[in-house]
Each structure stands twice: as structure tokens, then as C-alpha cells.
Amino acid sequence: MKLKEDMNPLLLQVFRSVVWVYSVITFIPWYFFSGAGSNLERARRIKARSVSRHPAGPYRAINNQDKLVAWQHPGVDTLDKMFEYAAVRFPQRDCLGTREVLSEEDELQPNGKVFKKVGDTDPCIHEVGVSVILGNYNWLSYEGAYHAAKCFGSGLAALGQRPQCNIAIFCETRAEWIVAAQACFMYNFPLVTLYATLGPTAISHGLNETEVTHIITSKDLLQSRLKAILCDVPRLQYVIVVDSKPTSWPNIPRGIMIYSMDAVKEMGSKPNNNRRQPEPSDIAVIMYTSGSTGIPKGVMISHGNIIAGITGMAERIPNLNETDTYIGYLPLAHVLELSAELVCISHGCRIGYSSPQTLADQSTKIKKGSKGDTSVLKPTLMAAVPEIMDRIYKNVMTKVEEMSKFQKTLFVLAYNYKMEQISRGYSTPLCDRVRALLGGNTRVLLSGGAPLSAATQRFMNICLCCPVGQGYGLTETCGAGTISEMWDYSTGRVGAPLVCSEITLKDWEEGGYYSTDKPNPRGEILIGGPNVTMGYYKNETKNRDDFFVDGNGQRWFCTGDIGEFHPDGCLKIIDRKKDLVKLQAGEYVSLGKVEAVLKNCSLIDNICAYANSDQSYVISFVVPNHKQLMAVAEQMQVRGTMEEICNNPQMEKEVLSIITEAAISGKLERFEIPKKIRLSAEPWTPETGLVTDAFKLKRKELKTHYQEDIERMYGGK
């Protein structure tokens, strides 16, 4: 459905008249006290400019043209000092919160699968198998978290862990992850982070390459993932399980000792003055990316790198202070979540933990009528990847389509009215009712990990009633590069460089992008600054290709992304070198551009465009929206299971027709529109290995997975 469309002028006038009466009472006083009149002026001002006066840059934020910022507080230049600073300043302030799970229930799904549900039912019912009852959040104070981390680090030292020797963490996002990480930062143990969804080969590779002897994990991951590969990691000696009450551990290879986190903290509870504090140049984290190509690479991140990165991010979040509450649910092994949580800790914020399955009242593991984590925690700050926001947007739009004509008209009128007000720098109290979806208090939503579509960004601004700060960064830059200002409601841009970074554009002749392009300079994005990491672990070839140091001693990273700078100094990501394919007739196709346009189609949950240079057209693999596809199948009188419908040639042809219409509406060129498609009955999740934990496409794995279909679609079979 198109929300921005020609409306009946009379209806629009009636709607505006109703709103005007309400606004006399609420909007006018709010306007004078909020300073909203200056929002538009702030959004339009120059935010960055080239310090060399060359269109290629380097570009710096307007408030630090002379020097990049490396830390927030003088002398607080390592992560252990940062945590100690927060603990001294906010000792009794809530730091880490975990929602209590009281009992569990198994629910039988229509497909026969057993699915665990959680719910706030009668708190007197505690029997396992009746339901999973979530209680309130239990909190660890800053002082308590600091003490727990110090004891745990001392206990690890008692177990033989040595300074500047690597230690691994393979664990879900939870309070114990951060306590363990802070312990490692304090005692100068470089922390190797591994995604909980990595495959066994990738896990073994990371553990063996970094030569770890100790690993921190959870009971569930030890039993389901780690136990199977312990024999493939010969140096591993100690497994520390973060759960407070681990069960017995049968079939553990001989020579491996298992301890609970509490037992290790008990070992370290005695005073220990042998702690060797890290230097800013020491490695804090070796972060294994869930990279979209090839085997995961370990990025070496120093204490100084992270301090610089979080300093830059924090500066772009207005009024960040100890009264804020952040909800943590994305993988902590991803630089976006780790950086966001460290930003919060540096400012004394509360962090309450959640998961994608329990986040909202409508989440998959929340029992109907129960409260999701956002409703209980009421966070003011939140991070999200575009994949999650796209799903919210499509779900709401699907429900709008099911409304009566009158209800739909009212929704569209209200939506367009608020869009108009936002574009003028104002708010609309009458329309700010939907924000309860995220607890009602969210004031900043940070998007990162991939580009966010304009339609989804507008939806989040309008319906969830909080600014979306689109960020751009990579593991190799500590997640820091740019973040859009909160009052900038333009779409498709990622904002100006952070105060810790500068960005220059490098000509890419093969793709036809030059810094001299008009109206805006374009080229490959190069990020420089103290947040640029130390390089890849044991991979000098890639280090030479992707990193360099300039004549001033500053370190730079070559991102492979193509960007353009707008006159106000904001960056827009327009392409990626790896996503650009030259077709047989010489046209260049940006696969990412094709996917971004077509993902706005309500019939598509996910899509991967593919092209061969020896072919003249694009093909695509499509994960259709189940509900939408079934509706199309019913219209066409096609019967069968989801898999049978996806394999039906008639359905392929009909879906291709719908996709073609969406491509034309999205103004794709003729040669960019897919000519053939393959429908997938199964969604692409990190567990399938076809997307990363940030839901970026793994093109190499997708190509392998669909190799027979590629041959069919290009071979005409």
C-alpha cells in the first residue's frame, strides 16, 4: 500500500480540523517548551565538511575540524578504567538486569513441533510444564557488577589464564557475558568473541587459530554446540559455564575441566594484587565476524580503539545519562551490540537483557496476554538491525490492508499528516499512541548492520514515535563511522562522520565512481581515526589489502562500500564493490540496489539477486511472505504445502509478475529487473548459514545452496 498518495481534499481538511482543536490545548504549549521550532533549522545545517577543501575529503564533523577525539575523559583510555570510572560515579545505580524465569510450558504447534512459550500467568503456578512465567527484572548494581567482574577475573587467573593470552566467549546475550568481558578487560585477557550461531567448522577454526585454553559458555550452548567439537580443539583445557546451577556433564573428553561461573568467582574472592592492567594499545577483543564471504576473520580491537569508538557514538546521542535504560537483545559478539552496551556503561545507564523471542508482547515465546520485555523494562534506548524493523513494518502494513476502507483511510490520513508535521520539524501528540509497542518510553532507536529502507525508516519515525539514528560502521572500525543526528528525518542517509572518525572517498574507475562526480562526490569509503582497528588476526595478506597508515601516522580502513557526500556533509551508501556485477552487454548491476527496492514488496520477506558476467539478465532467490503467498495461491486455486506451492511453476510465474511490477514502481532499469526466480519455502536465518547474525546475505553460501537452480535458470532447463 502506498501511504503517500493523493487523498480526498475534503477528508484531509476534516481530519486537520479535528487535530487543530486538540492541538490548541496540547500542541501550542508543547511547542514553546520543547524547542521544536529549531529542529528543522538544526536538520538543515552543515554537519561535516572536507578539511582539505577537496571534494574527496577527508570529511570531519563540523565540531571537530582540527582534531579527532580519542576519549571522553582524560586518563580513561582503557576499558577497565572506563568501568571503574562508572562504578565509582554510579555505585548503587542499576547496571545489569535479568528478567526472572519462574517456570516453563511446552506448546504443540499445528505442524507438530514443540515450542516453548513464556507468559505472566498466575505467579503461584510454578510447576515445570505448565507455563513459563516471566517475573520482574532483577538488577546488579554498578558496584556489584564491578566486584563480580573483579572476582571472576581473579578466579580465571587462579585457573591458569595469563595476561595477553587469548580467552574465548561463546555465549548468548546476557548479563553474565558483560561481567565476563569486563573481567577479561581488567586482567588484560584478550577476549575472543564467537557468534552463538556459527557452525562447528567456524567455531573450531576460531578457537584453534587463537590457541585458547579457556572458554566461557552457557549450559545450553555447551550441550547443543560446543560439546561436539571439543575433540577438535586440542589446546582447550577449561570450560566455564555461566549458569548458576549446571547439571552433570556426561561425555566430556578427558582432560577438560568444567567449572561454574560462581565457582570461579569464589576462587577469585581473595585479594589479588597481581593484576596486570592493560595499555591502550593492548588487544581487548578478537572479534570473529560472521562475514558474508569465506571463513570468519578475527578482527583485533585494542582498548584504545573501543574507547575512541564509543566516545564518538555517545556524542551523537542527545542527553545520554544515567537515567536512560537500554534493552540488550542483539548478539553481543556483534560490534553493534557490544559498542552500544559499552556506550551505556560509560554513562551509567541501566541495561536490561532480552531476546528476539521475548522482546515484545507479540514475540514468539510470549504467551498471549502476557507482557514482553519491552513492556516491563520500558527502555529509552534501543538498537536494531534493519531486518527486524522491516518485519515490524510489513506486519503492521499487512494488518492495515485487512482493515475496512474507512479504517484504512483514517490510518493513511493520520500517517500522512504526521509525516507532513515531522518534515516541518514538529511532533503530533494526537498520533503518538503506537509507541507502547516498545514500552512507551523509547526516545532513540539506533539502526545499524545494513542499510535501512526509506519506507521502514519513515514508518519507525511515524508509528513508533521516536527518531531513528541510522549508523554506518564495521567491525574493522569498532562499529563507528557515522550516525545521523536525531532531528534529521531525511531518509536513505547515514549521517555525518563521528567525532572519532574522518572519511574520504577514493575513486573507483571500474565502477564509474569519482570524487569529481556531479552533483555529489562519489567513491569507495575509507575511514580513518583512532577507532580503526589493528587488523585481522594472523592474516597479513588481508591486512595489506584493507588497511594502511598515512604520512601522519593515522590508520585507515578501505571498506569496499561506495558512498556519496551530500552538501550538508552527510554520507549516503549507494553501492558495494562486491555487489556490482557487469552483465554480458556491459551494463553494471548493483545487486544490493535490486534487493533494497524489491524488499519493499509485501510479498517478499527476503531476496538475493544474482548475476553472472557471461549472462545478460539477473535472477533472484526469494523467501516469500507465507501469508501473502498463500493468498496468491488461493486466488490461483493452487493447493498444497508451502514447499509444494513454492515449487509450482505457475506460482513462480505469478510471483515474478508481481515482483516485476514492484521493480518498475521502484524505478529499476530494464536490465536490473530479475527475469527468473526461485521461491524458498524455508526462511533464511543465521542457523541455516545463509545469512549472518546481522541478517546480511552470505552470497557465497547462497550460491552454493542454489547452484542447481542457477544452472536451471541460466541453462533454460
Automatic annotation (TrEMBL):
<feature type="domain" description="AMP-dependent synthetase/ligase">
    <location>
        <begin position="135"/>
        <end position="537"/>
    </location>
</feature>
<feature type="transmembrane region" description="Helical">
    <location>
        <begin position="20"/>
        <end position="40"/>
    </location>
</feature>
<keyword id="KW-0436">Ligase</keyword>
<dbReference type="GO" id="GO:0005783">
    <property type="term" value="C:endoplasmic reticulum"/>
</dbReference>
<dbReference type="GO" id="GO:0030182">
    <property type="term" value="P:neuron differentiation"/>
</dbReference>
<dbReference type="GO" id="GO:0004467">
    <property type="term" value="F:long-chain fatty acid-CoA ligase activity"/>
</dbReference>
<dbReference type="InterPro" id="IPR042099">
    <property type="entry name" value="ANL_N_sf"/>
</dbReference>
<keyword id="KW-0812">Transmembrane</keyword>
<protein>
    <recommendedName>
        <fullName>long-chain-fatty-acid--CoA ligase</fullName>
        <ecNumber>6.2.1.3</ecNumber>
    </recommendedName>
</protein>
<dbReference type="Pfam" id="PF00501">
    <property type="entry name" value="AMP-binding"/>
</dbReference>
<keyword id="KW-0472">Membrane</keyword>
<dbReference type="InterPro" id="IPR020845">
    <property type="entry name" value="AMP-binding_CS"/>
</dbReference>
<keyword id="KW-0276">Fatty acid metabolism</keyword>
<dbReference type="GO" id="GO:0005811">
    <property type="term" value="C:lipid droplet"/>
</dbReference>
<keyword id="KW-1133">Transmembrane helix</keyword>
<dbReference type="GO" id="GO:0035336">
    <property type="term" value="P:long-chain fatty-acyl-CoA metabolic process"/>
</dbReference>
<dbReference type="InterPro" id="IPR000873">
    <property type="entry name" value="AMP-dep_synth/lig_dom"/>
</dbReference>
<dbReference type="GO" id="GO:0005886">
    <property type="term" value="C:plasma membrane"/>
</dbReference>
<keyword id="KW-0443">Lipid metabolism</keyword>
